[in-house]
Amino acid sequence: MRDFRAALQGIPLPAALVDLAAVDHNLAQLLAPVRAANKTLRLASKSIRCPALLHYLTERSGGTIRGVLTYAAAETAFLAEQGFDDLLLAYPTVQESDANLLAATNARGASAAVVVDDVEHLTALDAAARAAGTRIPVVVELDLAYRPLGSLLYLGVRRSPLRDAGDVVAFVERIGGFSGLRFHGLMGYEAQIAGLADTSLARRGMKRLSRADVAGQRARLVQALAARDLRPTLFNGGGTGSLGSASTEAALTEVAAGSGFLDSLLFDHYRGLQLEPALFFALQAVRRPAPGMVTCLGGGYIASGGPGADRLPQPVAPAGARLLPLEGAGEVQTPVRLPAGVDVRLGDPVLFRPAKTGELAEHFNEYLLVRDDRVVERAPTYRGLGRCFLG
Ligand SMILES: Cc1ncc(COP(=O)(O)O)c(C=O)c1O
């Protein structure tokens, strides 16, 4: 693992770095199955949170990356101001200010669609759209959790209550009753495949069975809509961990991914993903609490989700450095045990990888974009641009 010492010369720590050569590698890897299937990829912005990187990826994709999958209405409006014109907010909202922002963004000429699965979503969005004299495109989400034993077992994340094609068709038919809305498309995210590493035989087996189930459900949904002459403009599915399989499904018009371009720790144990770590943070070693150990300043950038050790960042340079199990990564101090024979001078950087990619941007004002051991650009994160969308 590179230690980026040359790039970090004279840079105040903590600092967050993006290795552009690794990003380029990941771009080629992730886009290959999408291109082969003649589909497009929508960037999951929650995993990137840095407009310069969103532009970087889009511009180098040769047209394969089209549009952004956003996570907040205010973020959607903000990205429209930054020049992105094909936006899909993947998480519903009923807040009046959010609905107004989405309506205003559409009224200004961008396409700002939003995921829905409840009539309360439709009511809130419709009121704002009519007040703004526009229409908001809506995308209906199908729940794709794996439920092999019916209601007894639910393997997936809790998103939409629309469980099957019949539920979605009935819901889509209600959209026609709202003059401020337009049925735009479908979302079906298989989190139990895309977001789950292949760390055990049981998981791999579940994922294989679920993959077939998901593909069947998405295909049946498109058929059921076509039978009613309802034709979605887009059908979005997939994530970094399922691009290979999702890209091959005829029902999907596009796939989504974000994390894989930066490749955080959580993606280390997926079969078939040949990604390179591209996002790091460097902390200053400030103490020697015991032989073979240094304590770094900062480091408590813990990822969200079910709590567990896999949410912690991990030191990667010097190679073999480890967190202490009882302290983990602390808010202002992070001790690391060094491998035998390795010394870190006080003031030197210790390099870490985060468990997830997007949340690191909430801790840093800028990402240092590094190529050939040089910082070639200081790219402001949302935070650096004074934006914080989910608090
Ligand atoms: C709707 C949706 N699609 C795709 C993704 C995949 O994102 P990533 O590739 O960053 O894992 C997510 C992440 O949670 C998501 O919510």
Descriptive notes:
- This protein has 391 residues and is of the alpha/beta class.
- The chain has two domains: 5-13 and 274-380, D-serine dehydratase-like domain (Lyase, Ornithine Decarboxylase, Chain A, domain 1, Beta Barrel); 20-262, Alanine racemase (TIM Barrel, Alpha-Beta Barrel).
- 29% of the residues lie in helices and 23% in strands.
- The protein has eleven helices and 17 strands.
- Strands 1, 10, 11, 12, 13, 14, 15, 16 and 17 form a nine-stranded mixed beta sheet that branches. The chain has an eight-stranded parallel barrel with strand order 2-3-4-5-6-7-8-9, surrounded by six helices.
- α10 links the parallel β8 (234-237) and β9 (254-257).
- The chain is globular and about 70 Å long.
- The relative contact order is 0.17.
SSE layout and pairings?
Elements: H1 5-8, E1 15-19, H2 20-36, E2 40-44, H3 51-59, E3 65-70, H4 73-81, E4 86-89, H5 96-107, E5 111-116, H6 119-131, E6 136-141, H7 165-175, E7 181-188, H8 191-194, H9 201-227, E8 234-237, H10 243-247, E9 254-257, H11 259-262, E10 279-287, E11 293-297, E12 314-317, E13 322-323, E14 333-337, E15 349-353, E16 366-371, E17 374-380
Parallel strand pairs: 1-16, 2-3, 2-9, 3-4, 4-5, 5-6, 6-7, 7-8, 8-9
Antiparallel strand pairs: 1-10, 10-11, 10-15, 11-14, 12-15, 13-14, 16-17
The protein binds pyridoxal-5'-phosphate.
